Every structure is written in structure tokens, then in C-alpha cells.
Amino acid sequence: MALIDGAEVAKHNNKKSCWIVLQDRVYDITSFLSKHPGGAAILLKQSGSDATTEFKKYHPLDYVNDLPPRSCLGAIDPNTFGSLTRRKDLEDRPSSEANTGQKIPHISLCVSCLDFEKAAKAVMPRKSYIYASTSANTGASLKGNIEDWERINFRPRVMRNVGDVNTQRSIFGHNSPYPFYISPMGTLGAIHPGAEPEMVKGAVRKGIHMVVSTASTKTTEQIMRSMVEEQKRMNYASPTRLFFQFYMPVNRERAVELMHMVKKAGYKGLWITVDTPVLGKRESDRVLQAEEALSVGLEKQSTSEWEVGGENAFAPAMGGRVVSGQLSPHTTWGDLKWIRREWDGPIVLKGIQCTEDAKLALEHGCQGILLSNHGGRQLHTAPSSLMTLLEIRTYCPEVFGKLEIFVDGGLRDGSDVLKALCLGATAVGVGRPYLYALAAYGSQGVERCTHVLYEELTTAMRLLGITSLNQARPEMVNASRLLNEMWRPENTAARSHL
Ligand code: HEM
Ligand SMILES: Cc1cc2nc3c(=O)[nH]c(=O)nc-3n(C[C@H](O)[C@H](O)[C@H](O)COP(=O)(O)O)c2cc1C
């Protein structure tokens, strides 16, 4: 087949005829524009040009196989890459105009979790920063997550021998030096070129557990392989284990296929996200999408025409856009029956937000619950996980001891971790701080973030007067302020459901 000239490709740079180059092949993606789950605008930005670098940020290479038949037009003439369109005018602006040109701070200057965000903002493309930092609606859920940790105080004991401290915890029998783990976050390819494997590398080196997202840039197997390779480099001395976060696809066969893949790859537990029957309204994402559409002249297209994906059968996008077919709004408690038949390992429900559902999780044979509002990205004014933890302690204490209870959302300090453990949590998930650490410093950032949290935790334990996490008790914290605001059945019209 004759090679295609770059100058020819460059001509097809609009929505009527849109060609892109991926690796050394030319693709006509005109008919795919309106079906792309990530939106048409991002593809049009790449029209007539080599989209390989941008593509790899978001997708495994084998995604090209999912394009409609006959999309591949042939190979590009390698001598004509120079004639392709260079869309410099549309390149991503840095996330913070003020930081442009600023040098990234030395990693040793990151002494708290919040410092990683500042560093990341200096280097992250604006789109990636918006994806990471965005939250639902006015941001009230995210704000509540962060603030509630500071509304609980410790009740320290003094004059105790706190020379040596032990911070070990286990998740479903898998020991870890830490009572915290890395929360699942999608699309890490947009955060660091090394994507999920880079995060895994840092995790393995420090021995921290990690939950891998269904919406990852790399495949389930690639991510597991990267863990095994890093383990090998460390003579298998790292206790790190990977768990899998599961978004339920609408199609059951696909769901089963994914579960089998996850099992075969060796993931140690299935964390089913239950707070996302639909995507929350992430406002900054929406503004960005509108800006992108305007920048490529799509403003005349009605939003719905371009945003509703077609009959796609891919992994979900979690970037503020609904991916049709990938998030099932139809999942119910009854589905746990067939899920259990397909998956014999531990099941955690991620996104439990009230007592009633905690009880149901126990009744339905789950092994764990993760109290979470998805980092404030889903329901506007959802309860913080801390508030839910207090509610569950008050109204269904029977789940403690029978389920492993995790919390996440807004934890930015090792002492926040300790508060959750005092109140009975098994372990806590940390999301954005790890993402920002990865963005700014790659796997070294992941290691550093773990170290920072660990140091804060051990200091807090000593100052609280304990030497082991088994000594953490509810009476070591004063949660009165939150308890005053906690939901109570007597304040609700319908009381019969508890
Ligand atoms: C050419 C074949 C392509 C296919 C088959 C494809 C497919 C998909 C699919 C299935 C998703 C849903 C989420 C996911 O699985 O990650 C998605 C999202 C997305 N895609 Fe593509 N895509 C293609 C090209 C591109 C290119 C060239 C770019 C960038 C220049 C791109 C950027 C994105 C972005 C930004 C998202 C949203 C991710 C998020 O917000 O998390 N895609 N695409
Ligand atoms: C950028 C980003 C992507 C996320 N992607 C997913 C995901 O794919 N699946 C999921 O269940 N939760 C996802 N979450 C939610 C996290 O797992 C976790 O619940 C939340 O980030 C914890 O809050 P924190 O970021 O304040 O620590 C994501 C969160 C962020 C910030």
C-alpha cells in the first residue's frame, strides 16, 4: 500500500474530515468524533496531526482496535512527519499562569501533603490539574471532607513510654507497615508519563498497598506486571499488594470478563464503587470542555449531540463526562449475588454513606465497606466519611469486627489517619496527595508522600501516648462538635427504617 504524505493528512483538520496519526498509521476518525467518550473537541484539537503523545496520556495503545472498521487508512510516509499540522495555538496552558517558568521545588521542601499540590500545579497541564482537583457543584463536599478532620480533637495521655511505635495494619490478611493506602484514581497517564506503573513503583518501594482504578490508562495486566517487576528488583521484600476498584459496566458479560481478568492477574480484592450510578456534576471539567469545544469551533453543536457517547464498549472515563454503557445506573443489592458467584475474594463496597447501607453490606455478605463520598466529586453536600463513621458507630456498631471498615476523603495529615483509627477504621485511603506527588516527582514523590504521612502518624501516636495502633480508642478523640451535627433518626420524619 502506498505511504500517505503528511501534507495530505494535514488537510483533514476539521469536523467534516478528521484524520490523525497514531504511531506510524493514519486514521480517519470523522465518524468516531461524536462517539468518542472523551468528547469530540479533544480529537479535533489533534486533527491533521500526530496524536500519539496525547493519545498515550489517556489510553493503552490497543484502543485503536476499537475504532470503526476501515478507519486505518495506511502508514504515513516517515519522511513527511514535518508536514503534519502543529497545533501549538491549542496546546495546554500550564495549570497556574503565575507559576509559568517557575522551577519545581526540591522534593525535600515537601514536608506536608499540601506541598505536593503546590509543586504539582507548577508542572501539570491545566487540563490535568482541573481533572484532579475538580469536585462536585460548589465544592461543598470536598470542603467538608477536609474541614471535618480538624473539627475533631485528640485527648492525649502523657507520661507514657512512647519510645518505639508500631504502625502496622493488615488489609484482608495482607500486612502493611501503614494503616493507609493509595486510593484508586483513574487516568494517571494524564498526570505523569509513567502513568499507573510509576505510581506502583513508588508504592512497592515503600511497601504501601494500592487500589487500582478500572479507569486506569494502562491495562489491568500491565499494572500488575509493573508491580511484579518492581517486587523482583526488591527481591520480593515489599509487602505491597494491589486491590482492584471496579466500576460496574452495564453489560454483564463485560463485567464478568473484567472480574475474571482481575482475578487472573492476582488482585487481592474487589472494591466495587457504588456511589457513581452516574457521574457527579464536576463544574471545572464542564467549563474546560466548553472552552475546548469553542477553541475548535464546535460551539454550534448542541452539547448533548457531542457529549453522549455512542454504543462504545470501552473502559470508563472519569473526567467529568458520562460514558454511555460504562457506568451502570441499574446496579442493585441483588447484583451482589451473581458478583459473588464470579468473585470469590474479598468484596468492599466503596462509597457507603449511611448506616442503612452499612447494615445492608453486612447482610449481603460483603467483607468490607469504604465510607467515602468519592473525594467530594459525586453528590453535592454529601456527608464526609468521618461523619458517616460516627453515624455508623452510633447506629450499627455491630458492623465493627464483622466488616473491615475503610474511610477516605480529605485526609491530608498522618494525624487525620490516627483519628479515623481511634474511631474504629481498619485503614484509610489517601487520594489527591498521592496524585500530586506523582505529577511533580514521579515515583519518588509517591515514596516521599508515604514518608511524610508515616512521620506525621508516628509523631501523633507518641504525642497521644500510644505505641501501637491496637491501642487507638474512641475515647482518645473528642468528636462532640461533629456528633452535634450528626444525623439522628429522631430528627427524621420516617423512623421506621432503622
Ligand atoms: C483514536 C482512538 C480513540 C479511542 C478508541 C478512544 C477511546 C476512548 C474511550 C473508550 C474513552 C473513555 C475512557 C477511557 O477508557 O479512558 C476515552 C476518553 C478519553 N479520550 Fe479517547 N479515544 C481515542 C483517541 C483519543 C485521543 C487521540 C485523545 C487525545 C488526544 C483522547 C483523549 C481522551 C480523553 C481526554 C478522554 C477522557 C478521559 C478522562 O476524562 O478521564 N482519546 N477515549
Ligand atoms: C483524580 C481522581 C480520580 C479518581 N478516580 C476514581 C476512580 O476511577 N474510581 C473510584 O472509585 N474513585 C476515584 N476517585 C476517588 C478516590 O478513589 C477517593 O475516593 C478520593 O480521591 C479520596 O479523597 P481525597 O482525594 O481527598 O483523598 C478519584 C479521585 C480523584 C481525585
From TrEMBL:
Family in the record: Belongs to the cytochrome b5 family.
Name of the protein in its database record: Mitochondrial cytochrome-like protein b2
Cross-referenced InterPro entries: Aldolase_TIM, Cyt_B5-like_heme/steroid-bd, Cyt_B5-like_heme/steroid_sf, Cyt_B5_heme-BS, FMN-dep_DH, FMN_HAD, FMN_hydac_DH_AS, L-MDH/L-LDH_FMN-bd
Coiled-coil stretches noted in the UniProt entry, renumbered to this chain: none
Cross-referenced SMART domains: Cyt-b5
Record's keyword annotation contains Repeat: no
Sequence ranges assigned to domain Cytochrome b5 heme-binding in this UniProt record: 1-77
Entry keyword set: Heme, Iron, Metal-binding, Oxidoreductase
Domain FMN hydroxy acid dehydrogenase residue range list: 105-482
Entry's Gene Ontology molecular function annotations: heme binding; metal ion binding; oxidoreductase activity
Cofactor(s) for this UniProt protein: FMN
Keyword Lipid metabolism attributed: no
